[in-house]
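Page 42, continued from yesterday. The earlier attempt failed because a stray header line got pasted into the input along with the sequence. Redoing it now with the clean sequence only.
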Amino acid sequence: MKSKIPYGRQNIDQNDIDAVISALQSDYLTQGPKVKEFELKFSEYVGAKYAVAVNNATSGLHLSVLALNLAKGDRVITTPITFAASANCVRYAGGEAWFADIDPNTYLLDINSVKELIESKPKGFFKGIIPVDFAGLPVNMEEFRVLAEANDLWIIEDACHAPGGYFVDSKSEKNFCGNGNYADIGVFSFHPVKHIACGEGGMLTTNSKELYEKLMLLRTHGITKENMEENHGGWYYEMIELGFNYRLTDFQSALGITQLAKNKKGVERRNEISSAYKKAFEGKIKFQELPSEMYNAHHLFIIEVENRKELYEFLHSKGILVQIHYVPVHTLPYYKNIGYANAGLVHAEKYYSRCISLPMYPTLSNKEQDFVIEQINQFVNG
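This time it went through. C-alpha cells are written below.
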C-alpha cells in the first residue's frame, strides 16, 4: 500500500467542518447553546437522563470520583488493562486504586476476580468499582450492580471505548453503554481515535439528579449563580465547592453533534470490519470473545500472538501502524513505585505479552483491510 494505515483515524466530513465554522461565527465560542444541545442529544442517544460535557474523559473521571465523595485513603477497584486515567482519577482524589484481573477471553474486568478481592477484605474496605467497556465490548453492568449493592459500592462505567455498544439484561432489555441503569456515572471520550472526535472532549452520563447537579457545579469552579439575581444583581455569583475549569467549548460541541449523528452507521461499519477479521482468523489466531446478548462498539480489534513484538515490527515495516492496548497499569513505573509491582494479575500480564490492535475505523476500506489480513497471514504462516 502506498499510504500508511493507522490503527485508528477520525472521520471528518464537510458537515463536521460546516458545523464548526458556524459555531466559530456565532456569538458563543464557549458556555453557549451548542454545549447544552450536545448534552441533550448525547443523553438521548445512550438513554440516560442527564449528560455533562467536559474538556476530556480524564477530567470526567476526576469529577466522577469527586461527585461520589471519594476521600483520601478510600479504595477503588478497576482493571489493569485500560488507559492509566481509569486508575489515575482515584489517585487525583488521594485514593488508592486496586486492580482485579481480567477475563482471558473477553479482556474485561473479571467479576469473579473482583468478588475474590472484595471478600478478602473487611466490609467497607472498598468504596467503588470502575469497570471498563474495553475495546468497545460492554461490561455486564447488571451483574456488577448486584455485587456493588451487596457491598455498598458505587460504580463508574468507563465507556470511553463504547458509545453505541450495549448488553441485554435479565429483563431482556437493551442497555446501551452509559445509560445509567446500573452504573452511577458513565464516562465517554471524544479523542480523535474514538468513535466521536472533538479533538479533545468527554461526556458524563447519569440518571441521578443529585449527581448531575454536583457534576455541573464541579465542572465550573464550584461556582453558581442560581437564585441570586433577585437579592444581589445579575453580576453576582458564589463559589460553594472547590471546583475546576473542565468545560467543553461550543465549537467542539458543534463537531460532537455532527459526529454523534453518524455514530450508528460508524459502529455498524466497525462491526463489518470485525466480521471480516474474524472470518479470516477463526481457528488460527485468538481474538476478543463476543458473549451472547452483547453488541460490541469496536473501538479496537485485538488479536493475540506469541511473537507479538516481531509481528508489530513487521506490520509497521509494511505501513500498517498497529498499536498495543495497553501496558498493564500496575506495571507502569509510577504504580510499581507505590507498591503494585507484584500484583499477581496473571491473565492481564499474559494478555499484554500477546496483544496487538489492528486497524479499526469506519473509513478503513475493504482493500486496506484485505492488505492487513494478507500481511498477518503471511507472517503467521511464514
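Notes: DSSP finds 14 helices and 17 strands in the chain.
Reminder to self: strip header lines before submitting.
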